[in-house]
What does this fold into?
Amino acid sequence: MDKILVTSALIYANGPVHIGHVAGAYLPADIFVRFHRLLGSDIIFVSGTDEHGAPVSIKAEKEGKTPRELVNFYHDQIDKSFAGLNISFDNFSGTARPYHHKISQKFFKALLDKDFVVQKSGQQFYCEHDQRFLADRYVEGVCPFCSADGARGDQCDSCGKLINSIELKEPKCKICGKTPIIKETSHWYLELPKFENMLKEWLTTKSYWKDNVINFIMGWLNDGLIERAITRDIDWGIPLPLPDTEGKVLYVWFDAPIGYISSTVEWADKIGEPEKWKDYWFDPDCKLIHFIGKDNIPFHAMIWPAVLMEQNDPYILPYDIPANEYLNIEGSKVSTSRNYAIWVDEYLKYFNGELLRYVLAANAPETRDADFTWQDFQVRINNELANILGNLANRVFTFSIKFFAGEITKPLSLSVATQTALSEAQAIITEIEACYRNYRVRKTTSLIMDIARIGNRYFDERAPWKAVKTDKSHASETLYLCLELLRMLSIVMSPILPVKMLQLRKMMNLDDEMSWKYIPRDKTVYYISNIETLFTKITDEQIDEQIQLLEKVQPETAPLVHKPEIEYDDFMKMELRIVKVLQAEKVKKSKKLLKLMVKIGSETREIVSGISLSYSPEDLIGKKVVMLINLKPRQIMGITSQGMILAAADKDNNLSLITPMQDIDDGSEVS
RNA sequence: GGCGGCAUAGCUCAGUUGGUUAGAGCAUCGGAAUCAUAAUCCGAGUGUCCGGGGUUCAAGUCCCUGUGCCGCUACCA
It folds into this structure.
C-alpha cells in the first residue's frame, strides 16, 4: 500500500483565494488525494496559510489591525473558500501558530550548528523614530535607476528593477514618514553553494519529474547558486532562537515550507496521536508530493530540499513536485494588484463549487498556461455535465420509474451489445486510473465523459422506448447496463465531483462508501427514487453578468506617495526643453534602450532612453518631446547619455512620451 | 544579449520511445430518433502541423536556422 504525504502550496494570508490558485495547487492535489483514498492508500493532505512577512504587517497597519487579526481574518476567509470548493485537507494550518515557530527555530538551529547558515553584517535603513530596522518593503523612496517615485526598498514598480535598498534616494520610513538612517546590522545567510553538488546528484534521480520543473532548476544550478539571507529585521515573524537577536525574524521563504511539517504535527495532535506525523516525515517509503504553481519551483526543488538535507532528524525529501502553469482569465494574465481575478468567495455567491472543480479539471494548466473564459465555463457545464452526464442519468432514471416502478434487476445473461458497452467502459476506466496516478486530470475528465457518451449511444441504439412495448426484458437490460455505468461513474468521477457523485448515488439508493475496487462489483438490483436534476444549465444572462463583473474591475488606485515639498527655486534648477528627435535606433544587446539624436535649437545631443518596449525608432523620428537638459551625463551601455526624455509610466510600465499640444520650435524652454 | 518554454482545424486543446490516411471536444452542415434537462445518436467537411534548411527508407515528433509570443536572467531610464 502506498504511503503518501501531499501538500498544497501555503497561500499568503493577506488576501483571498482566486481560481488560479485553485487550478494550480489545490484542486489537482485534492483530486489526487481523493483518488488515492479510493485506492485505499495511506495518504494525508496538509496545507495552510503563510502568515508572516512585511506585506502582512503593512496591510495590517493600513487597516488598523494587528497582524494576527489580519491573518486570522484571511485565514477564515480562505478556509471558507476551500470548504466551498470541497477541498478535503486533513489539516489546514497557519504559520503564525506555536507549532510552526518551534519547528522552524529547530530547523534554523540545525543548519546553524552545521555551518550551513552563517552570520554576516551589512548596512540597512534604521528608523530612529520607530526604533527599528526597516525591511526592504518598509522603505519607500526614489528609484536610483529610473528616478521614479514610490519605489520600495526591494524593487521599483516603475522600472521593475531590483534595488539594493540602501541605494534608494530620498528614503522614507513607511510607518512614520521620517527619513531613516543607515545603520550596521547583521543577517544570517543560507550557504546554498555548499548544497550545489548534493542537489545536482539528488536531481539526477528525478527523471520522472515534469520537464518544466527540471529545466527550471537545472538552469539555476548551472548558473551557480548564491547565498541567501534568511533573516529580516521586523517584528512580525519567527524570532531567532539566539541570544541578543531581538527584532530579527526568519524570512518567510525559509519558514513557509516548514509549514507543511507543522501542519502535519498539528494534525497528529488533533487526532490524538502526537507522534503520528513522524510516520510520514521520517519514513523513507513515504512519498512526499508538493503541489505548487510554477512560481514556487525554486523554493521547493532547491532551497527546501537543501534545508531538509541537513536536519538532525531523518526527514524525507520531496518525491515529486508536479508544478502547474498559470491560468489566464479571458486571455489576460491574472493581476491581483489590479484586482483582475476571479475570487473564489465571489464565485461561490453565484455558482456551485463543484462546477468550478469540473471546469478547472477539464482545462487544467498542466503542460502550459491555460485560459479560463466564462463562455467555456458555460459550454462545459451545459454541454458536458448537464446534457451528456446529467441527462443520461435523468433519462435512465425517469424511464426506470415510468416503466419499472424504479426497480431494475440484473438480467440472467447479457447480450453482446451490453457486453461490448461494458468492456468499452472498463477499458476506459483502466486508462483513467493511470491518468489519475500521473496527475493527468485534464485527460481524466474527458475520459470520464466518454463513459457517459457510451451510455447515451448504447441507450439510443437499444431504443428501450420501443422495446418496452414488445420485449420488456430487453428494455430492462438496457436500463440495467446504464445504471451500472452510472454507478461506475459515481466512483470514478468522485475525486473531481465528490458531492455531486454522492447526490447521484443517493438517487440510486447506493451508500456513500466508495472504493476503486468496488467498480467491478455489479449490483443485482437497483432501486431508483427521489430523482432530482443533477446539473442545471447556466443561462447566457448569468454568463454576461460574470463577464461584466470582470470588466468592471477597476484598477485599485493605490494611495499616492508624495515627495516632500520643494521651493520654486528647486524646480527652476531643472532645464526642460522641447527637443526634436532627428535619429533613433535600438541599442544593440539591450531590450529596452533606444539611442536618440535630438535637436535642441542650435545644439544636437545624443541620449539613451529606455522606451524601446513602448516606442519603435520609426515612431519617434521627427517627433517633438520634452527633455531634461541639464541632467549630469551618464555612460549607459558604452554611450554617453546627455539628458533624459520625459515619459509617463502606468502601473504596467506602459510609457507615454510627453509632447507639446501645438507645434513649437525645438529648444523652447518648458516651465 | 544569455537560458528555457510555446507555436497543430474557425475556437479550446491531444498527439507517448520518429512508423499507416495528423486526432478529440466545441462550433458549422446534413440526417435519425422522441425515453430525457430541445437533451441524445449517426454522418460530413475543414489543416502550408509558424517559415526555411538538414538527418532518415520514414519527421508534427530529432538537428540547425529565422519569425512571433511568454517566463527567468543580464545590461538599463
